[in-house]
Amino acid sequence: MENKDTATLEEVKKEAAAYTKKNDVGERMQLIIFKLGKEEYAMNIDQIKEVVITPRIAKVPQTAMYIKGVANIRGNIIAIMDLEERFNLIEKTDQPNSETIANYTLVVESEEFKVGILVKEVPNTLSVNTTDIDSSSEIIRYTALDERCIKGIVKSGERMIIMIDMFELLAIDEHVKKVNTI
Amino acid sequence: MDKENEYKEMFLAEALENYEELNKLFTALEKNGNDKKAIDAIFRITHTLKGNAMGMGFDAIAGLSHVLEDVFSEAKNGSLILDPGLFDILFKANDKLGELINAITTNEDVKYKGIKTKLEVFLRNVKKPIGTEGNKIETKENVANIEKSLTSSDMGSTFVVSNEREKVESEEDDNQPKVIFSDLVQIPVRKLDGLMNLVGELIIERDSLIARGLESGGSTSEYARLQRITSDLQYGVMDVRLVQVGFLFNKFHRVLRDAASLEEKKANLILEGTEIEIDRNILKIMSDSLIHLIRNSIGHGIEKPEARRLAGKNEVGSVYLKARNEKDSVIIEITDDGYGIDPNAIKKKAIEKKIITKEFADSLTRDEILQIIFEPGFSNAEKITEVSGRGVGMDVVKRATESIGGKISLKTELGKGSTITLSLPSSMAVKGALLFELNQQEYAIPLTYTEAVVSLKKNDLHKVSSGIIANYLGKTISVIFLKDLFAMNSFDELYQENALHKSYANCKAENKLEVMVVSYNNKYFGLVVDKLLQQKEIVEKTLSRPIDTLDLFSGATILGNGSVCLVLDIAAIANVCFKEKFIKKV
What we know:
The complex is a heterodimer of chains A (182) and B (586). With 182 residues, chain A is α+β, with helices and mostly antiparallel strands. Chain A has 2 domains: 47-125, CATH 2.40.50.180; 131-182, no CATH class. Chain A has helices at residues 2-26, 83-86, 144-149, 166-181; strands at 28-36, 39-44, 48-53, 67-73, 76-81, 104-109, 114-119, 124-129, 133-134, 150-156, 159-164. In chain A, a hairpin with a 2-residue loop joins β10 and β11 (159-164). Chain B has 586 residues and is an alpha+beta fold. Helix content of chain B is 48%, strand content 20%. Chain B has 20 helices and 18 strands. Chain B has helices spanning 3-31, 36-56, 59-77, 84-106, 113-127, 139-152, 155-174, 189-215, 224-240, 246-249, 252-263, 280-301, 305-310, 343-352, 358-362, 366-371, 394-403, 482-487, 502-506, 570-582, and strands at 242-244, 267-272, 277-279, 317-326, 329-336, 407-413, 417-425, 431-438, 441-446, 450-457, 462-464, 467-472, 475-481, 512-520, 523-529, 531-538, 553-558, 564-568. In chain B, the strands form 4 sheets. Chain B has a 6-stranded mixed sheet with strand order 10-14-15-13-12-11. The interface between A and B is medium-sized, with 26 and 31 residues.
């Protein structure tokens, strides 16, 4: 019996060590941080293909307002969208030509397609612990949009960063469009 | 390379594959004589090989595979037991087959009759009922019989046979079976698609490079070589993807036969222009539609034999499937000499099915009535039969045709028959388009839809109810200001009052209006644009999410200057804008 007890103790120690180690390096996450309106938003770096200077955008009629059009990015024809408009983040005090200062395009990539997101400043990267992402339900989530597309709030010092999932957002919008046409 | 050689090359590739497959199967069968699947497979392969060889006139290969087929037909029925003694002969026969196939290119003289006779005699003995032992035949005895018959039975042929047999044997002693390489490579279509995409991008890059070069004062001649090499490359890759329509057409004999026997009708399929080449993907997309059209011509076109006799026609109907080249497109015509299509029957059906109202139907011309068969939900068959009612209607055929930028048209004469004409692009990669400018942005319309470009003044246009009309070559056509369409959030706004009059109201009387006359379904209409640009070859790419569901555009292309140019979907625009006019919702 004594033997077994010591073994268990050792196991517990090992487990504890593994736990701290995991907390130190294991579950870290790389995020891309960009500003929309006055807020900071984040996306998992795995979803980001690249950041480019916004190319000439061809307008596409009969699309939602926040879809600014299509652009040629490295030979791919990609839809460009303005999330500030999508999230109603444009305040009336903003310059009316806020579009023109959206200098950079964040290219977000899934397995099947890519979209571009307009941003004003070059996005930064941030490495956080998964434990710093508060995905609890204490944030107000009234709509399906919030529920599915906001993954949580990242706390980094004083900053509060909203983490979103771009593809959930697109899936919701497409679903809404479909329902409307039926 | 001429057609005959191309056929030959394809036959060779397939035959070699068959030969390898047979070798594999024989080996498997030798280890496990009861392998039913292998026996079936061998029977099938030898049968195909025989058919192909006969078609090509390679009698030796046809003969030898015919005997092998017979052997395995017996084995399939269970009236022949395969045992080790027989396999030696089979392997030798297959080796000979390989040599014969190889000899097509080397023109070598291959002696095969010995082994063929061996198998034939063997078979003959199997078929002879031997005593009460029933069907079980000892192969050893058989082989002995063969040897005997080779030397003793009818003298005339034996002389030749045994003579050849000696040669064969002496050859085989120092001649180990050779490993034979085919001169053809099989490539998955996926890889070809990848190549085609790359070439498309290369062309775009080339154009943009040349455009930049010209801007900075260069001359086109500097790029002549680049231009030529890339063009050659493009056409080379396109050429690789081309297949002869005959490969698909030949399968339709069976489709026609099955359809005809189900309907108790008699008909022949006559093929023309089977050597015409078309992009493999286009043929694939159209194959279901063509099957449907063939079935239709039996189901709806050709009459029953008695009816045909009464009408003074040959009891056996004819269905023609013809292909020909016309400029850049491939025209495929399906013609039958059957009953034709009765516009009155169509009209009645359409009213019954509530596709159109009676009042509206009466205002339609004969051609417009005939167009109704392309409407979704219309199927003229009285009852759904296995032949024509498979859930694919003419609307699906039409949509498939248009999805690849093709056109479909119908001609019919009551009592004489109908012709469906499909006009398909021969390659999907590059298409001609007319570029224009609207709201300082470039757009393209595929040349398949453009008819003419005219310059009109405001007083040439007339407001009529919710639309605008104009006169084009004596015909009255509808005119739409594209600007109005583009300003809408969705096509639903078409129903708003004056939705199509906004730009008209704004334009000044003295301004010239550039109107592109486009046609769809033999219906002409005009689109007013800001400025016409040049005609250009474009590589159209489909739009990806989230803008893949747009009705206005079928895709986009990248221009030489690097900007994106959207390609108008004329079929969709016509459907949305004129649907309500043409066929009223009930």
